Amino acid sequence: MKYEWATASHVGHVRDGNEDSVAPRDDGTGNSPLLIVIADGMGGHVAGEVASRLATEAAVAAPADVGIPAPERVTLGNEAVISAVADDPALTGMGTTMTLGLFEADGTLRVGHVGDSRLYLLRDDDLRLITRDHTWVMDMLLAGQITEDQAATHPRRHLLTRVLGMPDVKVDEEELEVQPGDRIVVCSDGLTTMLADDIICDLARNAETASEAAWALVEAANAAGGYDNTTVAVVDVAS
Description:
alpha+beta; 6-stranded antiparallel β-sheet; globular
């Protein structure tokens, strides 16, 4: 299977620094296994940036083809954050989300996920959310205690229930088979807090290339207010 990928990241219009991390940082095309990671740090400007960077570096330290499962790579990121806090108590309280996609040569996509960054599959003009947000509001929604409309504007909708930096954090695992023509979008919540899924779908399907799609999404989030850092990775699947 051949993959074309691109990543884009912007600080937005409100934050002083960018606490998101993404890998790879360069666009490319290839038939080899591919690792895509987006991590959104928290815990203050410096600590959040440190958490997302350390977690991402640990998750991608081994090449994509060495057989380390996607969830285990996310766990390695968690261990890196915990270790950094143990070495420097000034970093106490930092954490990060992580959404990781391991695209294998046979078309299998294995996903490891913690937090509220997201991975979407765009197929035949239909956008499907693959990951589940680990937030207090999502738990309430799934329990039937609030409606989708209430969840969309709830004042505590950004309260995370699961992040890297927590001991023994549970990593969600998903597996799907991608096919030629698929487009995968991975993003930090800077995108999804600014744009509804139908807008994300329209922008993603109307862009000709992965790079055009990634930057169109980031620029639209900024045009909508850019209240957070926004990071997007797009992977196109070819035969």
